[in-house]
Write a structure and sequence with these properties.
Strand content: under 5%
Number of helices: 9
Largest sheet: 2 strands, antiparallel
Helix content: over 70%
Keywords: Membrane, Transmembrane, Transmembrane helix
Strand order of the largest sheet: 1-2
Structural class: mainly alpha
Organism: Methylomonas paludis
Subcellular location: Membrane
Protein name: ZIP family metal transporter
Transmembrane segments: 6-28, 40-62, 68-86, 187-208, 214-235, 247-264
Shape: globular
Radius of gyration: 18 Å
Order of helices and strands: HHHEEHHHHHH
Number of domains: 1
């Protein structure tokens, strides 16, 4: 199977799967959502960190000479700073926290333990769609860079992206609904936004195919993205509850995320061999 076909399939699979999973998740009762979403966030944390430290970064280092490793490391650092700035400018904040100030118009209140979002109609929704489309486009470029480096790495990177997109899409879907969008329009806009991943993958394949010298730096940016999302967005949410039972559950699901990516790396390696 050609690299182009693999890139299109895996970029489309991750984006559409996350949107469909989010839409099905919102059909559950609020109490069920509150129980399941933290587990998804924990799972995504383990998947992202494993994808970054056990997949992307080792491959980035392996693709350059020893003398260039410091510059690849610096790219990881600069990438984390870049994603911080982009999050500030483009309102990328995933709505996992109880006080999601990055969307400006939103406020969260709690009644009987349930979380509600109130926004001015459509304003927050427009920012969500714009920010998510840009985020998905960048994910597509980075997935393409991973596939161009190694098929195994591309598969693992796609799975890690899908793991963190599901909790994000749940938050985005909820904001669109509370911003005045119907369920049909919210689903449509989320699907269209997810297709930006395919566009990014195609552009990455076209522009990076003959530029293998810069692929390690794109892998470094992908690792920066994974680390930033896990550390800046997901882990702070997990710290909101500190009781022993919840903490043990969080550790268990983080380890499950680690195990998934680790196992998929092994399967993909055998498949490629």
């Amino acid at each position: 199977m050609s690299l182009l076909v693999l890139i299109v399939l895996f970029t489309a699979f991750g984006g559409i799967l996350s949107v469909l999973a989010a839409s099905l998740f919102l059909l559950l009762s609020e109490s069920s959502q509150e129980k399941l979403l933290p587990h998804g966030i924990s799972f995504a944390t383990g998947a992202l960190l494993t994808g970054a430290f056990c997949g992307l970064i080792p491959h980035a280092f392996a693709e350059v000479a020893v003398k260039d490793i410091p510059s690849v490391s610096a790219t990881i650092l600069l990438g984390i700073l870049l994603f911080f700035v982009l999050e500030k400018l483009l309102v990328w904040r995933h709505c996992h926290s109880h006080a999601c100030e990055a969307h400006g118009e939103e406020s969260h209140t709690h009644h009987g333990g349930a979380q509600h979002v109130s926004t001015r109609p459509h304003t927050a929704g427009v920012f969500i769609i714009l920010g998510d489309s840009i985020h998905n486009f960048v994910d597509g470029v980075l997935i393409a860079a991973a596939f161009l480096t190694d098929v195994q790495l591309g598969i693992v990177t796609s799975l890690a992206v899908a793991a963190h997109e599901i909790p994000q899409e749940v938050g985005d879907f909820a904001i669109l609904l509370h911003s005045g969008y119907t369920k049909a329009k919210a689903l449509l806009y989320n699907v269209l936004s997810s297709l930006a991943t395919v566009v990014g993958g195609l552009l990455g394949w076209l522009s990076l195919g003959d530029l293998h010298g810069i692929l390690p730096y794109f892998l470094s940016l992908a690792a920066s993205s994974f680390i930033y999302i896990a550390v800046a967005d997901l882990i702070p949410t997990l710290h909101q509850k500190t009781d022993l039972k919840t903490s043990l559950q969080q550790i268990g699901f983080i380890l499950a995320g680690v195990a998934l990516i680790w196992i998929m790396q092994d399967i993909a390696h055998r498949f490629e061999a």
